[in-house]
Amino acid sequence: MTSSDEQLLPTTRRALLHRIATAQAEGRSPSLAAAVQRQGQVVWNGSRTCVDGQAPDADTQFRIGSLTKTFTAVLVLRLRDEGLLDLADPLEKHLPGTGAGDVTIHQLLGHSAGLGAESPAPWWERTPGSLRPGLEDVLGEQSRVHPAGRRHHYSNPGYTLLGALVEAARGASWAEVLRNEILEPLGMHRTSPQAQAPHAGGWAVHPWADVMLSEPAEDLGLMAPAGQLWSTTADLLRFAAFLAEGDDRVLAAASVAEMRAPAAPSEPGDWDGHYGLGLQVVRRKGRTLIGHTGSLPGFVAALWFSTEDDVAAVAFANVTSGVLVGEVAAELVDIVAESEPRIPDPWRPLPEVDDELLALTGPWYWGARPNILRLTPGRGLELQPLNGQGRGARFTARPDGTWIGLDGYYAGETLRVVRNDDGSVNHLDLGSFVFTREPYDPAAAVPGGVDEDGWRGLGS
Predict the structure, then answer these.
(1) Which of helix, strand or coil describes residue 54?
(2) Residue 126 DSSP code
(3) Would you say residue 241 has pLDDT above 70?
């Protein structure tokens, strides 16, 4: 990726700088670094610092805290895609003896396993991982706070278990697997479990006085898969590009998209969105943002991207509290997306025409409700209600001549063409729903015509 500030208008660049300058000043952070990516290119880098001449740049490491969880989730999805496990498997099948073996891998990924939010005291984020040498020390005696699968309850120990699962499946340390399977393929050479110069130091700022306290940078040991990593704005924007589109060297686009799907009901009041598999998805100002936030003593971090706008933003601050860095990163996305809206790609016709598929397009009726079927690239189909009332979905073609629903009510449902004996199309069957060319077509199955007298007016 290359950096080109000239790709943004001067007014946009100034708005971005003003936002982070305000955040650093009002949040009283020793330093703050941020960057924005649009259409796969870094278009802006900015930073503020309290020390003249020592502002962090795109190569300066900050600790990213729970953003680490997204990396761990990718490693688990890789195991699933290789057929080494199923997300519905109980943990015990692959990692016996934890005391939490009945919870599923899916529940751990989506924080619905019912495990506690934190490990037993002392506070794991500010003490050495050597104090918790075994998984039993991470989970504690009362590891369950909710029944498994009932609700979303964020759990750091849950991701420790997932890291141990990765190590058991690969026969190597979590850090080694992470480097080989994600960091090296994506060119993230400045992301690491331990700090590498140049890096920021972590600080706490006194709540009632402008004085600072150095925060320790502990090795988290077994808790590393929940929050250990250090990274840079440049590296996390590479990761954002991967999360937006996938990369077959790491994880296919379909599996990355699966990470965004809701894994469990959100806690009331948490946020306007949901948690998927290692990813937070939020709705704000009519925009969907995907990514994660993170914090450890001395650091806060956030990564958000909008697929609709093709804009991603990263923000770091080296302070324990005071800077709402998740909101800062979200507003950086807003500034670019709203000041310089994405220019659509040129319309182009499909590369080839399939007359048989083309003949299926146009109006179809479910009972008396009109829908429009359109042809999409790759022999796909899209069914949408004509007047906005009803259920719509996109469908992807399968080798057997049917289509599978990708979203909405029909996600996972099968669409097939039902033909008459002479080969002509009788109706479309979508999960047992019959769509016909005429409202209540008497020649089709239910809800085909029933009343033999047919349609009638008031005086009939």
Answers:
(1) coil
(2) G
(3) yes
